[in-house]
Amino acid sequence: MSSLQPITLHGHPGPNPWKIALLLDELNVPYTTKIYTTPELKQPAFLALNRNGMTPVIEDPNKSLLLAESGAIMDYILDQYDPEKRISFTTLPERYHMKQWLQFQTTTQGPVLQAVFHWAFVEPNPEARASYVKKSRRVLQVLNDGLADREWLVGGKCSAADLSYVPFHSRLDFIMREATPDVETEFPNVDAWYKRMLGRDAVQKMLNDRDEATKELSSLGKK
């Protein structure tokens, strides 16, 4: 896809923008990343991109498209840039099973872990945090059960469904701290799956890029 103009990915060190980076790297779609601090997301320059003041947002000059919300962006990238279905499907039931897992990530895994972090560090509330820690374990159990007889969530290959869970899962220790479960022992299918994910070049690039973005903001005294 060397003839494409780079997509601009507007992001933040938090997990959601890195789902988009993973898809773009897996599909070899050129892109550049602009990282924002939390206060910058509420400033007029960013609100002109997304009035909700949240990342990710993409600008695709190839289609003259500005788009927000990670789920919508993932659908768009798969529709426009995965014609060979390298990380998606055309067949039934795989196409809709992938969407099912993507929905579970955006409506459950992400919000639950965000709530664990929020009630621990933003508005400390031990009771609320404990409730969401319990819910996070249920999410891991759902994933563990879904991987009980397979290496990947859908269709015998790594797909967007698998990729979407990595940014949050890779931050379990940071988000849950002392409440982090022993995934290897308690959720062995998830542990084996994540080790397979770590073998993918796009995943390693995402982890490195995220660490560099976090360090850069920290060096500037920002977050």
TrEMBL record:
Coiled coil: none annotated. SUPFAM superfamilies: GST C-terminal domain-like (SSF47616), Thioredoxin-like (SSF52833). Residues 91-217 form the GST C-terminal domain. Residues 4-85 form the GST N-terminal domain. Belongs to the GST superfamily. This is Glutathione S-transferase. It comes from Letharia columbiana.
